[in-house]
Prior knowledge:
There is one protein chain. By secondary structure, the chain is an alpha+beta fold. The chain has one domain (13-79). 30% of the residues lie in helices and 7% in strands. The protein is built from 2 helices and 2 strands; from the N terminus they run αββα. Strands 1-2 form a two-stranded antiparallel ribbon. A hairpin with a 6-residue loop joins strand 1 (30-32) and strand 2 (39-41).
Amino acid sequence: MAIYHTRIKTYSRAKGHSAIAAAACRGGYLLTDPTSGARHDYRGRAGIIQSRCLALSTPRNSMPAKTRGLRLMLITELGGR
C-alpha cells in the first residue's frame, strides 16, 4: 500500500516571501523570478530524492496576463529538467 504525504504552506508577499524562491528551494530547481530578475539556483541541494511541480490548469482568459507568463515560464523551466 502506498503512503502519500503532502505539506502545504502559505507565503506572504507582504512579508517579503517569494513563491518562486520557495519552489526552487523545495524542489531543487533553478528558477528566475520574472518580477525581480533574481535567480534562485538550488540544483545542488542534497536530500531531494524526487520532486514534482504541479501547475494548475485554468481557462486561458481567466488568468491575468502576468500570471499566464509566469505559468509558461515555470512550465518551460521545469519541463527541461
